[in-house]
Every structure is written in structure tokens, then in C-alpha cells.
Design a protein that fits this description.
Largest sheet of chain B: none
Strand content of chain B: under 5%
Structural class of chain A: mainly alpha
CATH topology of chain A: MetI-like fold
Oligomer: heterodimer
CATH class of chain A: Mainly Alpha
CATH class of chain B: Mainly Alpha
Strand order of the largest sheet of chain A: 1-2
Helix content of chain A: over 70%
CATH architecture of chain A: Orthogonal Bundle
Largest interface: A-B, 85 and 77 residues
CATH superfamily of chain A: MetI-like
Number of helices of chain A: 13
Number of strands of chain B: 0
Strand content of chain A: under 5%
Number of domains of chain B: 1
Number of strands of chain A: 2
Number of helices of chain B: 12
Radius of gyration of chain B: 22 Å
Shape of chain B: globular
CATH architecture of chain B: Orthogonal Bundle
CATH topology of chain B: MetI-like fold
């Protein structure tokens, strides 16, 4: 009987193993090889990691100087949105979650495109402000800057932050919050308790997801960032016009390692806030 | 107290508008006649819609997107449902471990997944095309199907199966006439979600399709050159496909946040 159940899982596991585990191991092995005259040479060494870390220090700094703030901002706004939907807006709360769900499926590429049209010099924001004579010259700090990048990323990732935190908040009863208030807890006490303790799983899931996605993105910097480049913008061409798989692979693993280190650090921080 | 309540509602409205307005604007500007997306809008027209249907590549891209989306949905709903049924019958602890492991591809940046698959396909000598895109998409649609169907299966009332078996139905007959009709809405919902995820994907498609195009890669090509207003019309089609299928999916699976 047990065998039959495992048999049912086999096709899904096979897809996972043949399309993820094997390719991923192979992809890692490639990072130890090198390239010569557009051919892969099976010569095992760590030179690519050396290059990936030391030649791209500035790019890594830029990547994380955007992705860490984005992950924090998105998680906090996402948490607050869920909080409003759960406790403060009554029956409109479900409408708020519905809006989050529509945005979730509203297209990755289309969202970036939409922000490009909104933030541009002749875009929606500038044309409205000029039309109402609030400004004379278009605001140029919106597009092709870090400001634009952060806005686009936060918008794209918000639904992914809202849904897990809302799921966590559904386990919290309004009576608990009222009794905390009755016992003299201030607004920030309650928020702190909800954010770090009751929603810990949802909040952490949201932070982890946001950090991994932003640090590995290349399309948003390419279209919204102007001259700002992320590590992804350096990795992607290594698999296209600047053929260098080993270096590209080493850069990918370096990036994943950095992101995972940050995540480990943050989860320790969360453990530290736990009174138990 | 009253003021605090009003502030909450104002914040909720502002955040909701922030979330929804970019999508709303893409659709709005698809129906204007201006060459750039800016206010004020003077005339509404179907100009860009006529233009995209005359576009050389548009139809083939639309067909490619549909072929990929439907194939991905069919395959991942079969493998995903089988896995979900199997997982629902083994101890919860090992089931959630398997679920967590199988969901790793969702957490990885799509760029890493895309280049991993590209190097793998090229190295084993597979020709890139629609088939490589389809099998690549399985990696991130399958976990969603499994999660959705699994959460239905753990609440499944097995006594109805037992009664059918007691009344003489074979295990297969019991499965086909009882289990399948009961879980059907959830499975259809899950596969519609797979369609939405697949149609929406750009990065993995971009690396694994080779020479072809889907709607998102076509849009990307247009975006690189300049802001062409046709993009709004194609974007509206993509949005229509992903949002309508995911909304039906949420309704069928009774998802409530």
C-alpha cells in the first residue's frame, strides 16, 4: 500500500530530479571549469569564484544596496496591508486581498513596462503634474534611478509579501489585540508582537522570497535602472553574447551564497527577538 | 478613536490604488490613440488593436503562448494531482518535507533557473524550442498544483470511497466515479493557475525557447527598442489571459487569502 503511494509521487519527483537536481549539479560543476576559444575545458579550479567575488565587488554592493532595503520595505508594507485587511477595514478586507491577488497575477513584464510608462519624463506622473501646473519641468529622479527601481520592485513583490503574512494573521484573534490594549499595550507594542512573533513565518517567508528574487533579477534594472546594473545583468550576457558559462555559473553561486548568508543572519535576528 | 479608524481606511485605499493602478493604466492606454502613455487623454480608439492584429509575429506568438500554457497545464495537473494523492496518504511529516524540497525552484531567482536549464539542454544536445519551454515550466507550475490539490486531499472524506468499495466497486471504478468528480474543480483550478503562471513567465522562456517567441518575449523585444503603444494592447491580452484564468482558478479552489 505504501509502495503504491510513493509510486504516485514518482512522476513529479522525476521531473524535479531530471530537470532540476541533475541540471543544477551540472551547472555547479561548470563553475569549476574554464573556457578557451569558445569551448568548455574540464580543468577543475576555483579561478572563476576568485573573479566572481573580486571583479564584481561594486556590482554586488549595488545589488544588495537595493535588494536589502526592498526586501525590508516590502515585508513591512505587506505586513501592514495584511494588518489593515485583517483588523481595520471590516468586510472590505476581503476586497483588499482580492486586489492583492489580481496584482499577483498581473504579469511580471507588464508591471515593469507599466512603471516605465508611469515614471518616465513624459510619463503618467509627470504629465499629470505638468497638466495641473504643479511642476514646470518633468521630475527626472523617477526613472533610471534607484528610486524608480525600488518603487517597481516593491510594487511587484507586495502581493508575495501580503499573502503569507495575511495567512499568519488569520490565526490571530481580534480579542487578543483588544485585551493587549486593555492591559495598556501601546500601538507599537502590538505591531512589534504581531510582526516578530505571531507572523514570524509569514514575515520571514516574505523577506526571503523578496531578497532572493530582487538580488537575482536582471530585467528590472535593465528596463528601469538605466545605467544601474545588478549582478544579474552581468550574468545573463555570459549565456548569450559574451559566452562564458563557467564565470556566469560561479557568479550565480556567489550571489546565491551571499543571499543565503543574509537570510541566515536575519533569521537569527528574529530568534533573538523571541522572548522564549 | 474615530480619527485612527479614518487613517487606517485612507492608508488602505492608498495602498490598494498603488497595487492596482499600474495594471489599470496598461489597459486604459491600450484604448487611446496617443503614441505615448501620458495624460490628458483626448480620444479613445482601437487603433493599437488593429495594429497588433496586422503585426507579422503577433498571431504566431499568441499561438505559441497558448500551446505552451495548455501543455504545461495538462502535464503538471496530471503529475501534480498524482503526487498530491500519493502525498496525502503518507505521514504528514515526510509529505511536507517532500513538498518543501519540490518547491525549491519557486524560491530561486528565475534567472538562475533559466541559465541552469539552458546549459543543461545545450550540453545534452537537446534542440531548444517550445518543448524545452514546456518541460522547464513544469518545474515551477507543478509545486503549485501539488500544494493546491494536496490541501484538498488532506480534508478528503475517505468513508465515501469505503462505501463504494463495500458496495462492490473496484478500486479503479471507485477512483473514477467518486474521487475524480469530487476533486475535479480543484484540479481544474490548479491547472488554470498553471496556465496563468506559464503565460506570464518571461525569464525562463527567454533562455529556453531558442529562436521562437511567445507574447512576453515579443513584448520584451518591442520594449527594448522604444515605448511602442501596441505593447499596451498586447499587455492587455496577456493580462486578460493570466488574470481571468487565475480568478476562475481561485473561485474553483475556494481560495480566501
Amino acid at each position: 500500500m505504501i509502495k503504491k503511494n510513493y509510486l504516485l509521487i514518482t512522476p513529479a519527483i522525476a521531473v524535479f530530479v531530471f530537470l532540476f537536481v541533475f541540471p543544477f549539479i551540472y551547472f555547479f560543476i561548470i563553475s569549476l571549469w574554464k573556457i578557451k576559444f569558445y569551448k568548455l575545458i574540464k580543468d577543475y579550479n576555483l579561478i572563476n569564484y576568485n573573479k566572481a567575488i573580486f571583479n564584481y565587488v561594486e556590482i554586488f554592493m549595488t545589488t544588495y544596496s537595493v535588494s536589502i532595503p526592498v526586501a525590508i520595505i516590502t515585508t513591512i508594507i505587506g505586513f501592514y496591508y495584511s494588518y489593515l485587511a485583517r483588523f481595520k477595514t471590516g468586510r472590505y478586507g476581503l476586497a483588499m486581498i482580492f486586489i492583492a491577488l489580481i496584482t499577483l497575477f498581473g504579469g511580471y513584464l507588464m508591471k515593469i513596462y507599466a512603471w516605465k510608462t508611469i515614471l518616465g519624463n513624459e510619463g503618467v506622473i509627470n504629465s499629470i503634474l505638468i497638466y495641473f501646473h504643479i511642476i514646470k519641468e518633468p521630475l527626472t529622479f523617477l526613472l533610471y534611478t534607484k528610486v524608480g527601481l525600488v518603487i517597481t520592485f516593491v510594487h511587484f513583490l507586495l502581493p508575495f509579501a501580503i499573502l503569507p503574512t495575511y495567512a499568519s494573521l488569520r490565526g490571530v484573534n481580534a480579542i487578543e489585540i483588544d485585551s493587549m490594549k486593555d492591559l495598556g499595550a501601546k500601538f507599537y507594542h502590538i505591531q512589534f508582537m504581531l510582526f516578530f512573533q505571531r507572523c514570524r513565518t509569514g514575515v520571514l517567508a516574505s523577506f526571503v522570497f523578496c531578497l532572493l528574487i530582487v538580488s537575482g533579477d536582471f530585467l528590472t534594472p535593465f528596463l528601469i535602472g538605466g545605467k544601474i546594473s545588478f549582478i544579474g545583468n552581468m550574468i545573463a550576457p555570459k549565456f548569450g553574447q559574451f559566452f562564458d558559462w563557467p564565470l556566469g555559473s560561479a557568479m550565480s553561486f556567489t550571489m546565491l551564497t551571499f543571499s543565503i548568508l543574509i537570510i541566515v543572519l536575519v533569521s537569527y535576528l528574529f530568534k533573538w527577538t523571541d522572548p522564549k | 478613536m474615530k480619527i485612527q479608524k479614518n487613517i487606517s481606511i485612507i492608508l488602505a485605499v492608498i495602498l490598494s490604488i498603488f497595487l492596482i493602478s499600474p495594471i489599470f493604466l496598461v489597459i486604459l492606454f491600450a484604448f487611446t490613440d496617443r503614441a505615448i502613455a501620458s495624460f490628458p487623454i483626448y480620444n479613445f480608439s482601437f487603433k493599437w488593436w488593429i495594429e497588433i492584429f496586422n503585426h507579422r509575429q503577433f498571431t504566431s506568438c499568441l499561438i505559441n503562448s497558448i500551446i505552451i500554457g495548455v501543455s504545461v497545464a495538462l502535464v503538471s495537473s496530471v503529475t501534480g494531482t498524482m503526487a498530491a494523492i500519493g502525498l496525502s496518504k503518507i505521514p504528514t511529516k515526510s509529505a511536507s518535507l517532500i513538498l518543501a524540497i519540490i518547491s525549491i525552484p519557486i524560491m530561486l531567482p528565475p534567472l538562475v533557473l533559466g541559465i541552469t536549464l539552458l546549459t543543461f539542454y545545450v550540453s545534452v544536445g537537446m534542440k531548444l524550442g517550445l518543448h524545452t519551454v514546456i518541460i522547464s515550466h513544469l518545474l515551477f507550475t507543478q509545486p503549485f498544483v501539488i500544494l493546491i490539490v494536496y490541501s484538498r486531499m488532506i480534508n478528503f472524506d475517505y468513508s465515501v470511497i469505503d462505501s463504494a468499495r463495500d458496495l462492490g466497486a473496484s478500486p479503479l471504478k471507485a477512483f473514477l466515479t467518486i474521487t475524480i468528480p469530487i476533486i475535479q474543480p480543484v484540479v481544474i483550478g490548479a491547472s488554470l493557475l498553471a496556465v496563468a503562471l506559464s503565460v506570464d513567465d518571461f525569464i525562463i522562456t527567454f533562455f529556453t525557447i531558442g529562436a521562437g517567441n511567445t507574447l512576453p518575449t515579443l513584448v520584451f523585444g518591442m520594449m527594448r527598442t522604444s515605448l511602442k503603444p501596441e505593447v499596451n494592447a498586447i499587455g492587455t491580452i496577456i493580462l486578460f489571459m493570466t488574470i481571468s484564468s487565475s480568478m476562475i482558478a481561485l473561485w474553483l479552489t475556494k481560495y480566501r487569502g
